[in-house]
Amino acid sequence: MSKEKLLYPFYILTHPMDGFYEVRHREKGSVPLSLLILLLFSISFSINKRYAGFVVNDINPLSVNSFQDFKGIFALFFLFCVANWSITCLVEGEGRLKDIVTVVGYATLPLVLAYIPATLFSQIIAENEEAFYYLVLGIAIAWFLLLIFIGIMTVHNFTFGKMIGTLICTFIAMLIIIFIILLIMTLIQQVYTFFESIYTELLFRV
């Protein structure tokens, strides 16, 4: 991977519209790099849960499961990407699935850059200074959401109004996908239980 592609997510931080346009039309993005950024976010998020100072953190460090955090973040990431892609295919969005994955992955960079410094800062703040900690994370989250909004709108070539409608439909699609997955898992479990009961009964009869 070239140095230009490695540094490109930092360019997008301050030039999101131009940057995401280049991702869609000039292949400036990288799906592996997007997934790497997401992995770094999952690590920094887990570190924050485990090691943030007691002033801002009431989670028992022993209860933190980094692997569960990793699975949850990646599951939500792919759920959003697939749901958005399925909706935008119906409304003539120009972005491909890999463009959506790249946009969402690159958009998490502000969170990566904020969580570790915020965790370190939380170790030295007093009880009445936690507002600075939440300010850092709040700015990072707002930046992340803004980048996703601009990125999705740019790669699909949507207007502001169409983008709002598409996001609403995306969240509905996410709920539908979750429902279908749960339904399939329930059916599989019922089928497994049925065959297991038949097998058990045959054993007793023999």
Task: Describe the 3D structure.
It comes from Anaeromicropila herbilytica. It is a multi-pass membrane protein. It is found in: Membrane. By secondary structure, the protein is an all-alpha fold. It has one domain (3-173). 81% of the residues lie in helices and 0% in strands. It has 8 helices and no strands. α1 (3-14) packs across α2, α2 crosses α7 and α3 (31-51) runs parallel beside α6 (109-122). The longest helix is centred in the C-terminal third of the chain and has 46 residues, at 160-205. The radius of gyration is 21 Å and the shape is globular.
List the helices and strands and how they pair.
Blueprint: H1 3-14, H2 16-25, H3 31-51, H4 66-90, H5 97-107, H6 109-122, H7 130-156, H8 160-205
Helix pairs in contact: 1-2, 2-7, 3-4, 3-5, 3-6, 4-5, 4-8, 5-7, 6-7
Protein name: Yip1 domain-containing protein
Keywords: Membrane, Transmembrane, Transmembrane helix
Membrane topology: Multi-pass membrane protein
Descriptors for this entry?
206 residues, mainly alpha, transmembrane helix, transmembrane
Q: Secondary-structure element sequence?
A: HHHHHHHH
Gap from first CA to last CA: 63 Å
Domain count: the total is: 1
Number of strands: 0
Give the class from helix and strand content and strand pairing: mainly alpha
- Biggest pleated sheet: none
What integer value in Å does the Rg equal? 21 Å
Percent of sequence in beta strands? under 5%
